[in-house]
Amino acid sequence: MKPWRVGIAVATALVLASAACGTAGDTRGSGVGGADLTVGVLLPETETSRYETFDRPLIEQAVKERCRECVVRYANAENDVQIQHQQMNAMLSQGVDVLILDPVQEGYLRGLITEAAEMDVPVVSYDRVAEGPISGYVSFDADAIGVLQGEGLVDGLGSRADGARVVRVEGPLWNPEHVAVSILERAGAHITRTYVASGWTPENAYAIMVGVIADLGVDKIDAVWAANDALAAGVISALKGAHMNPLPPVSGQDADLSAVQRIVSGEQYMTIYKPYELQAEAAVDMALALARGQSLRSIATGRISTDTARNVPSVELTPALVTVGTIEETVVRDGMYTISEICTPKYRPSCKKAGLID
After folding, report:
1. What are the helix and strand counts (H, E) for the chain?
2. Cβ contacts of residue 137 below 8 Å, gap of 6+?
3. Can you tell me the distance from the alpha carbon of 87 to that of 247, in angstroms, rounded to the nearest whole number?
């Protein structure tokens, strides 16, 4: 059984703690545990499938394996900064020993993170760097992600890269100075339009792309840089609705199962695979060590500094590019998906063509 599926089974046994704080429950395992510790886990939204499909169950499973007596309190903010503020405040009031926090907005919880530090409750910033005196940071190398996105689109464009017109569809908290831009520019491609969706949903991206097509016309869209797979889904739906054939290269991120299937079928050119199990395990190792007052020397692989925190122990993991030719050596090899999960009846002809099945 996959670790995140085990985690899902654990999650179903959790009991409701409060409306503000989501679910809570024991995650008990065979690992050494020592004193009872309560680990608060605050994730930002459910629009992106990764959080409930991978991050939450993997974090819960990692706690279970490492700490027999530990309790996990979990909450998801549903992309609402005020709700996340209430959830974090509730967890601090209820007495958590450490927090793993993926903020909806990096700066919104700065005051509560300062309050947590004053209460000796360490905060591990997860996936995004939260403002305030955080005690640790675990994510993926953002520059490496940008390099892969840029290189992937250039590869997808091939001989058409020089002079290519790329539409950029970003989500909330986008980075306007993304390294992918320079890679595209070096190949002769350029961003003609940039749009920022209000949320990470296919519906938002679809509405944006319908407007782009009406404004530019399909003949002036050579590639689409979609910030993640949910946005890519909406972009592709709009392009198909405009009868664009063949579809231009479309990027993505997160390696959603549906995105991998779109890559197999030729609708999406690439996505970025981020091994969530490694991220969850590093965050839990860091959180438990901090809660026990132990050194992070053997866990942290680097340090980061922000305007509000200096020399924060960090783990920044390496992402990987997924195209139709690298599916087996990335998401399949690492057990994220099986061939049978990818190659459902609808995708069997495409899988056969791609060499994934006989």
Report:
1. 13, 14
2. 124, 125, 129, 304, 312, 313, 314, 315, 316
3. 43
Find tokens 């490496």 and name the residue: 144
CA-based nearest residue to 239, from 259, 215, 221, 260:
221
Q: What is the DSSP secondary structure assignment for residue 13, as one 8-state letter?
A: T
Q: Dihedrals φ, ψ of 353, to 5°? A: -60, -35
Residue the block writes with tokens 């999406």: 268
* Predicted confidence (pLDDT) per residue in 266-323, tens digit: 999 999 999 999 999 999 999 999 999 999 999 999 999 999 999 999 999 999 999 9
Cβ atoms of 152 and 270 closer than 8 Å: yes
Q: Are 128 and 146 in contact (CB under 8 A)?
A: no
Residue 7 structure tokens: 């985690």
Question: CA–CA distance from 95 to each of 72, 77, 119, 152 (Å)?
Answer: 12, 19, 10, 46
Instruction: Tell which residue, 289, 317, 319, 275, has the closest CA to residue 136.
Output: 289
Beta strands 123-126; 71-76: pairing state: unpaired
- Rg of the Cα trace of the chain? 21
What tokens were used for 240?
Answer: 């198909």
Can you give the pTM of this predicted structure?
A: 0.86
Sign for the CA dihedral angle at 79, 96, 39, 70 comes to: negative
Estimate to the nearest angstrom the gap between the alpha carbon of 3 and the chain centroid: 17
DSSP H or E run through 64: helix 56-66
